[in-house]
Amino acid sequence: MLKTLLARNRAARYLIAATTGVVGVGCFAPFGLFWLAPLVWLGFFWLLLDADSTRQGLLTGLAFGLGFFLTGVSWVFVSLSVFGGMPWWLAGPAAFLFCAVMALFPMVAGYVFKRWQPAALWRQAMLFAALIAAVDWLKGWIFTGFPWLTVGYSQAAPSPLAGFAPLLGVHGLSLLVALSGALLVHWRVGAPFAALLAMGGFGLQQVAWTTPVGKPISVALVQGNVPQEMKFRPEAFFRTLDLYRELIRENPAQLTVLPETAIPVFIDQIPGEFLDELKTLARRQSGDIIFGTLTGVGENYFNSAVSVGNSPLQVYSKNHLVPFGEFIPAGFAWFMAYANIPMSSFTRGPEVQTPLAVAGQHVAANICYEDVFGEEIIRALPQAGILANLSNTAWFGHSLAQPQHLQISQMRAAETGRPMLRATNTGMTAIIDAQGRVSTTLPAFTTGVLHGDVRAYQGMTPYARFGNWLALGLMVALGLVGLSKRRRRTG
Predict the structure, then answer these.
(1) Averaged over 112-129, what is the pLDDT?
(2) What's the Cα-to-Cα distance from 413 to each of 16, 168, 310, rounded to whole Å?
(3) How distant, in Å, are the alpha carbons of 14, 55, 221, 404 from that of 107?
C-alpha cells in the first residue's frame, strides 16, 4: 500500500522523507532513543531504494535533510534572533538557509547512491553506509566544519555501540549505524548483524584502552548562570566578579573551572585585587583556577582560558573559531551589521598548544564549539590526562543545543579514554568519566557548583593514535565493494 502511495504521489514521498528526518532527531540527546537510529536510517535507505531516478534520490535526500536539520538545529534561530539581536525577518531566512545548506549533504548521498546503485542488497547497504558516513565527515570540515548531529553521536553512552568509539571514533559509529539500518531491509540478515554489533560494542566496553594514573583530585565546576543579555554590560561587571568570587570561596577544590568568558573583559582590565584573591583562594587547596576571559597581543585578541593559583599563570587560546559568532567570513560584514554579537572578530590561537599544568595534572582545555572536532582534541594527547571544556551556551536559550553538546562531549571522552570536565555558564555543567558516561551534572539555568573527584588517565586509544583514518579506511573499503558491481541510473 505504501509503495503504491509513493508511486502515485511524489509529494507523499518527500513528506515521508522529511518526517523520517524529524524522527531521527529523537535518536540524539535529550531524547536518547539510540536504538531508534538504525530504524531511521533504514527508512531513509528504503526510500532511496524505492526512488525511480537519480532526481528522486536527490530530492529524497534533500527532504530528509531538511526535516532532520530544521528540527535538530532550530536553536540557530534562537542565537541569531533572541540573543544576537537580529530582526526575525532576517534571522528566520538565515536559519532556514543554514539548515538547507546542511541538508545538501544527505542530498548528495541520495544522488550518488541512485546514480551508482548496485544490484545486490548487501552491496547496496555497504554503499549507503559509506555515503552516509562520508557526508557526515565532509560536513565536519568543509567551510570550517559543522559536525553537529553526526549520526554516530546518537550512540554515545549508554548505547552499547559506544564501545566502538575508542576504536573508530564518531564517524566509524555513523558507518555502523547506517550499515545496520540498511541491512534491516532484509530482516533475517539485519537483525543478527545488529545483535552482533551490540554484543561487540558491549565487549569492547570491557577493554581498558587507558588506565588511571596518580591520585584523584577534587574539582569544582562553576555554573554562574549569568544572563546572556547582561553578560557584556558594564554595569553588570562587578556583580559578575562578586558572584564568581563567592562561589569559589564557598566551594574549595584543587581544580576549579569557570565557564567561557566568565570574566568578559581583557585580562589586563580585570582588577588586580580580584586576580590576587583568586590566587589566594586557589592556594588554599594547593590548587589552581581556570577561567574564561579575553587576551590580546597588539591588534589581535583571543577567546582564552587562563589559569591562576599554585602554578604559574598559563593561557590556552581558542583555535577553532565559530563563523559569524567569533569571526566574520569574507563578504559577510553586511550580514553582521544586523546582529549584535559582541567580540565577533577573534584571532585564532595556535593549532598546537601545551596542556595546562594545573593541580598537579596536565589538563587539555578546549572552548565551547571546539570539542565537536575529535581530531583536534587528540592533539593534546598523550600528555594531557584530563579534558576540560569551557562553554557559554546561553546563546541558545532553552533549546536542544545544551543536551546535544553534552552528548558530543561524552563522545570525546569515550574516543580519548579521558575524563571530560564541562564548566558552562547556563548548562550543561557535567563530569564525564573516561568511558564517556555522565557521572554527575547540574540542572541547566541554575547557579551552582558541581563537585567531584577525578583521576587523570594515561595511554592512547586507537582513535587517539590514528584519528579518523581507521573510519575513513572502512568507508573507502565499503564504498569500493559496494561499487564493484553496479548498475548505473539516469534521469
Answers:
(1) 95
(2) 36, 13, 27
(3) 12, 10, 41, 23
If asked whether residues 227 and 139 sit together in one domain, one would say no
Is 334 a residue whose pLDDT tops 50?
no
For the cut 90, the answer to whether the pLDDT of residue 333 exceeds it is no
Nearest to 371 by CA among 302, 335, 418: 418
The answer to whether residues 148 and 136 touch, using CB atoms and an 8 Å cutoff, is no
Q: Which residues contact 454 (CB under 8 A, 6 or more apart)?
A: 216, 217, 219, 255, 386, 419, 421, 431
Residue 489 lies in a domain: no
Residue 31 domain-assigned (yes or no): yes
CA atoms within 13 A on the CB side of 1: 0
Q: Exposed, middle or buried by CB within 10 Å (0-12, 13-18, 19+), for 23? A: middle
How would you class 185 by CB atoms within 10 Å of its CB: exposed for 0-12, middle for 13-18, buried for 19 or more? middle
Do 201 and 326 lie in a common domain? Answer: no
Active site members: 260, 318, 368
Angle of helix 37-50 versus helix 10-24 axis, rounded to 10: 160
User: ∠ CA 111-476-404 to the nearest 5 degrees?
Assistant: 70
Question: Could you tell me if 61 and 118 lie in one domain?
Answer: yes
Q: What is the CA radius of gyration of the chain?
A: 23
- Residue 285, helix vs strand vs coil: coil
Tallying the residues shown for the chain, one arrives at: 491
Q: What is the CATH number of the domain that holds 435?
A: 3.60.110.10
Q: What is the mean pLDDT of the chain?
A: 92
106: preceding bond cis by omega (within 30 degrees): no
Encode burial over 104-134: b for 16+ CB neighbours within 10 A, e otherwise: ebbbbbbbbbbebbbeeeebbbbbbbbbbbb
Cell 594527547 locates to 381
Q: Where are the alpha helices (DSSP H) in 116-147?
A: 121-139
Amino acid present at 210: T
Q: Is the pLDDT of residue 484 over 90?
A: no
Residue 331 domain flag: yes
Kind of pairing between the strands at 386-391 and 420-424 = parallel
Please list the residues that pair with 323 across neighbouring strands: 327
The range of the structural domain enclosing residue 352 comes to 212-460
**Whole-model pTM over 0.85:** yes
DSSP summary character for residue 250: T
C-alpha cell at 140: 565536519
Helices (H) and strands (E) in the chain, counts: 17, 12
Q: Report percent pLDDT > 90 for the chain.
A: 79
